[in-house]
From TrEMBL:
InterPro entries with a match to the protein in the record: MULE_transposase_dom, Zinc_finger_SWIM
Composition bias, Polar residues: 713-722
Coiled coil feature spans: none
Provenance organism: Serendipita vermifera MAFF 305830
Name the UniProt record assigns to this protein: MULE transposase domain-containing protein
Domain annotation MULE transposase: ranges: 254-350
Region Disordered, residue ranges: 410-465, 698-729
Acidic residues: bias regions: 447-459
Lineage, top ranks: Eukaryota, Fungi, Dikarya, Basidiomycota, Agaricomycotina
Length: 818
């Protein structure tokens, strides 16, 4: 078709239909010319807007997007020129941004083609109030349709009406609303959601000032704290009115920090109060000390934050839980000197485990004289044989260098020509000093000493020395875990006093290192964990009470909620956006928690989540086998259900301070026990009307407790809660009777047998192999039962011995006439 052969159409729809048929024919070269006449009525935007609307209609019809190149006015109207967006001949060259601080990245364009495209749209006014619209289009290549990535306007309305939802949930809802919206990506919705919400949190360009003004806007929920000014320190603290002003008698608090949450790289601290084993945030601190040269800058800033919180909310906890950050520890001990510090046990085990895996021998500077003066069983000569490393110190601070301790031995007491032998004796072969060679000084010896990892054995062979052998690393961590859990109230191999527990722990650690010839490990343990001033940080023995919190898990759970639900959507978000997210998305959840604390709903589903795990563990321990009272090892543990104390290791390390010996020494508890009971910090640790020991203090049998007049199961109210359903199913499983569980097992095995028979018609050999592999142990067990049945029903077969085939000891076989 020639460009001059213009076709006339009745209206725009007819022209577009003809153009659509041209593209459907799949021609490589399309040349189209057409026109139609419309009434000349007033149009918003004039002739240019008419041309733009027609170009959009051509895009929808041909699935090729056209962009305007230029336009010019004529005496009778306007002429606009357009090109295909995928035409390589008309692509604009990308330009790098010249803005300061902008990082230019490689961005791949959409695929381009040599389609030599052009489209001219001319609007011409005719006499008689009519307009003639001409379309001339040339497209010389067939290529894929234009893929539009813009969000449609009606989809934008959906996002505007869903700003309180998470962007991921909004994106999922949009993609399932219309088929054409399935191409919308989550990041597009997230970016659009952020732009629409920006007016609510971006008050000014300066992030810190914007965050402060945002806190002032929401003063009914949060209040900005007036902190001490420290040169070079950026600090912004705010407390939660809904928590601090309403929560009373806080006994335990947790303090921790997280990083990489905002564009200013301020550290985010939170102080959380414990209530019923649940963490509730009291205040937050955004802190940066990067530009400060002040001494103890971070410790002073944190102490100022804690002091304001203490005075404003009358917060006086008896326990403060942190990780091994000495700035946090020092600040907390300064603000609450009467409180007991609790070092997170997870961080303790990780720090010791990580150091034990390192190969270097140089460790913390060891003061042998101080250790020997503290405990006489510590040999001052058992010390590292390498130079100390002042940087190897738990707590991220350098140890102040102390002058080396020089010990002099009287001449008449010095050993000469010793013939000592044994595992602790090391033979050293020293070459003779040449005549005239100056005697080495003590200073030169210390300077030339290095991290030697080899020594000579008695026979002269070199022995590779390590900081801690691999097979001793796990026992080391387990030993320290026992030391951390030991307490005078709990019976053990130590005197029932704080001093007795510490001496027992130090003795264990010292002889663990001494027997394995690990002086460097002992120096590390003593200086970082067992000496005075460090022992009190991580052991619970120095305090008469046993805290509920052993780790910073309540804080880590809070960070998980904040990061996994919101912060991961925008890495390094603006500071004001972070504050807005916390105020509007995070804090309301904890306000509801405080409301339930002060005014309980009476519903089990509103109780703390730890109670589900507590109930499951209790029910499981009820069914565990245990030795009879008076028998070993039951007698050695001496469980006392009246004081709720047991000497078994399971009780010592239990999160809930429970064990099978104590639970089975009591009558079955009411379901209300798992809803109402709270763990105390002194003996007895669990008290409830339905928790009644089998015998009283004089040894007489007690009556079972009267259950509350209801058969209501707390988990039954959680039918709409997935977690509640899981707990309900788990509790029923653990509390099922013997007959119920055996019937369920039989039903499962019958179902498995039906699946085996179902495979037979298919003749798939690999199915047989899998069933044989997965069920081989059960089939062997079944064969053993049949063999035992044959022996029991035979008059001539030799009877098996008691301990022969132990796994069949409690299996009853069928009689021969069954």
């Amino acid at each position: 078709m020639s460009m001059n052969a213009e076709r006339a159409f009745e209206n725009q729809e007819a022209l577009l239909e003809a153009l659509k048929s041209e593209y459907k024919q799949g021609k490589g070269h399309i040349e189209f010319s057409g026109a139609y006449v419309t009434p000349d009525v007033a149009h918003i935007g004039g002739d240019k807007q008419t041309a733009n609307e027609l170009a959009s209609a051509v895009w929808e019809t041909t699935k090729r997007r056209w962009r305007s190149k230029d336009s010019r006015d004529t005496k009778q109207g306007i002429v606009t020129k357009w090109f295909c967006c995928q035409d390589s001949g008309h692509r604009d060259q990308p330009k790098k941004s010249q803005k300061e601080g902008i990082q230019n990245r490689d961005k791949m364009p959409m695929q381009l083609f040599d389609c030599q495209s052009v489209m001219r749209i001319r609007v011409k006014h005719l006499s008689g109030n009519e307009r003639k619209i001409h379309v001339h289009l040339i497209h010389c290549a067939t290529h894929p349709a234009y893929y539009d990535i813009d969000i449609p306007l009606d989809a934008l309305e959906v996002i505007k009406n869903s700003l309180w939802s998470k962007p991921g949930d909004i994106a999922q809802n949009i993609r399932t609303t219309k088929p054409d919206w399935a191409r919308i990506k989550t990041y597009q919705v997230r970016h659009t959601w952020k732009k629409l919400c920006q007016d609510k949190w971006r008050i000014c360009d300066d992030q810190l000032e914007s965050a402060k003004k945002l806190l002032e806007r929401h003063e009914s929920t949060v209040e900005m704290l007036c902190l001490d000014e420290i040169e070079g320190v950026v600090a912004l603290g705010f407390g939660l009115r809904c928590v601090g002003e309403r929560l009373e008698d806080v006994v335990e608090v947790g303090l921790d920090a997280t990083y990489h949450t905002n564009a200013k790289d301020l550290e985010l601290y939170v102080l959380m109060a414990e209530h019923d084993n649940t963490g509730i945030p009291v205040a937050y601190l955004l802190l940066s000390t990067a530009t400060s040269i002040e001494q103890l800058k971070r410790k002073r800033a944190i102490a100022s934050f804690l002091t304001v919180i203490r005075d404003k909310y009358n917060l006086k906890p008896r326990f403060v839980v942190t990780d091994k950050d000495l700035a946090e520890i020092s600040a907390a001990r300064e603000v609450w000197p009467e409180s007991k510090h609790v070092l997170c046990q997870w961080h303790l085990k990780k720090a010791v485990s990580d150091r034990a895996k390192q190969s270097k021998l140089a460790t913390t500077r060891y003061n042998a004289e101080r250790a020997s003066n503290a405990y006489t069983f510590i040999d001052p000569l058992f010390k590292p044989r390498v130079r100390a490393d002042p940087r190897d110190n738990e707590g991220d601070v350098l140890v102040v260098d102390e002058p080396p301790v020089v010990m002099s031995v009287p001449h008449d007491l010095r050993p000469f020509g010793s013939q000592a032998t044994g595992p602790n004796y090391i033979s050293l072969r020293l070459p003779p000093r040449p005549p005239g060679d100056p005697k080495p000084s003590q200073k030169s010896i210390l300077e030339n000493d290095d991290d030697e990892t080899e020594s000579e054995d008695e026979d002269g062979s070199k022995v590779q020395r390590v900081f801690c052998p691999e097979h001793l690393r796990q026992p080391l961590v387990q030993m320290m875990e026992k030391h951390a859990d030991a307490h005078p109230t709990i019976r053990g191999n130590h005197a029932p006093s704080p001093e007795g527990v510490r001496e027992w722990a130090v003795r264990n650690a010292y002889f663990f290192c001494r027997e394995n010839e690990l002086p460097e490990l002992w120096a590390y343990l003593w200086e970082n964990w067992y000496r005075a001033g460090r022992w009190e940080l991580w052991a619970r023995a120095p305090n008469a009470e046993i805290p509920r919190l052993r780790t910073t898990m309540i804080v880590e759970s809070h960070w998980r909620h904040l990061k996994h639900d919101w912060l991961h959507l925008w890495p390094k978000m603006r500071l004001d956006m972070l504050v807005y997210t916390m105020i509007m998305k995070v804090i309301p959840k904890y306000k509801n928690v405080v409301d339930l604390v002060l005014e309980p709903s009476g519903r089990a589903r509103d109780r703390a989540t730890w109670r589900a795990a507590f109930k499951a563990e209790w029910r499981e321990l009820e069914l565990r086998d245990t030795a009879r009272p008076g028998k070993f090892p039951y007698k050695r543990y001496a469980p006392d259900p009246h004081k709720w104390i047991c000497a078994c290791e399971a009780y010592l390390t239990s999160r809930f301070l429970i064990c099978k010996h104590l639970i089975q020494s009591c009558h079955p508890v009411s379901p209300w026990f798992f809803i109402q009971a709270e763990r105390g910090r002194t003996a007895p640790f669990w008290v409830h009307p339905s928790l009644v020991p089998l015998t009283n203090a004089s040894g007489k049998t007690t009556k079972p407790p009267d259950f509350l007049p209801t058969d209501w199961c707390p988990s039954s109210t959680q039918s709409s809660d997935d977690a509640g359903n899981h707990d309900d199913a788990q509790s029923r499983e653990l509390g099922a009777t013997y007959a119920t569980k055996m019937e369920r097992m039989a039903s499962d095995l019958e179902g498995l047998a039906s699946y085996v028979r179902y495979q037979i018609p298919f003749g798939e050999r690999r199915a047989y192999d899998q069933f044989q592999k997965q069920c081989s142990k059960a089939l062997d067990f079944y064969s053993d039962i049949l063999e035992r049945e044959r022996i029991n029903n035979s008059q001539h077969a030799q009877r098996p011995k008691t301990w022969e085939n132990f796994h069949l000891m409690f299996i009853y076989t069928k009689p021969s006439n069954s």
